[in-house]
Amino acid sequence: MYQTPLDIEAVDRLKRESGLSSIGKASIRELVKLVSQIEVATDTQFVKMEMGVPGLPAPDIAIDAEIEALKSGVASIYPSIEGIPSLKKETSRFVKNFLNIDVREEGCIPTVGSMQGGMAAFMVAGRYESKKDTILFIDPGFPVQKNQLKMLGVKYETFDVYSYRGEKLRSKLEKYLQEGNISSIMYSNPNNPTWVCFTERELQIIGEVAAKYDVIVLEDLAYFAMDFRSDMSKPGVAPYQPTVANYTDNYILLISGSKAFSYAGQRIGCMIISDKLFKRRYPELKRYFMNDEFGKAMIFGPIYGLSSGVAHSVQYGFAALLKAANEGRYNFVEATREYGEKAKELKKIFERNGFHIVYDRDEDKILADGFYFTVGYQKFTGEALVEELLYYGVSAIALSTTGSDKEGIRACVSQVPRSQFAILDKRLSLFNENHKVDKALAESAAQ
Prior knowledge:
By secondary structure, this protein is an alpha/beta fold. It has helices spanning 8-18, 28-42, 60-71, 85-99, 113-125, 143-152, 168-177, 200-212, 275-279, 294-307, 312-326, 332-352, 382-389, 421-446, and strands spanning 47-48, 108-111, 134-139, 155-160, 182-188, 216-221, 251-256, 269-273, 355-357, 361-362, 365-366, 372-377, 394-395, 397-398, 409-412.
């Protein structure tokens, strides 16, 4: 029996008491709760890599604007569900400045984070035609989005994009869309959990195939401009954040205030509906909503029904943040570059301790360093690796929970301070030493 940094009996007891049938299949929040309990019971601080919590301070620009709004009395007034005028204006400007696409202000709608934006998008984009009753995920992806569809009773299909990069993506998408039941295509870019970033060629393929079969593209830009291989920080100057909006008119973009703007606690994001899609009429939408015009069905259906709008003062804070970015007074990309620098060092720690990078390339390019990365170890399944690492005070989620066909785990860099790098190195070194023994025994038995 080998030694681990945490008491094995204590960890085993808490695993049993959690009631989870499989630790490796647990949701992120369930895993967070278990890790917190283990920390208390063992008096040991974990290296937490399971949850995508931003690790940078919120910008003063937003906080000051929100305080000013509160002092002006907005807390006693319901906000417009369509968004306050200043936020809609600055969102439209931001889309032009950093995506180089034109969208009217009416199609720029604040949401309670991208989570609510996604839920609302599914409720309309998954129901506009009865024969198109299925949403297609280009995976791996954010597990909660599929849970949202289960709650809504909306069908979905999924495939792991790893083996279908470049031109191979076209035939894979065609295979699904030619069946006629796909209403929309969903993906994130940069990707959660792998940090894969689609190339312009791949985005063009997605847009062309979506246009051919008249389906809506749902593009989650939660990690906006965080592919640090290119500097997308200057308003109105190329390069811009890559987007499918350059290749189709039927799109919804989800922009989050959480990661790129470090404003996670205030729960705000924006849904961007293309001008063409906003005005399209789908008679079957009246089965669920009062209006058959797509944009109005979205606003006065789920946006209204889910939350009656975004908190009033928060809209003022986010509007100020976007205004500063639009005017070049706030470089939000530079503020988040620390994530990429940390990822570069953390990958090295894992690799020198016997782990390998699972998703490692964007076609012919080495994958960018960013908010997430993926690692595997020997013949461990991702689920087994999540569970085993608990004894070493390291937490992550299994790739199997994200729609991945690969074995491994997703590691998030945001909650790992640099002061823990040496601790992680030591724990992974011990993990590797202990499991080198397992590997040697297996090789010996095979001879």
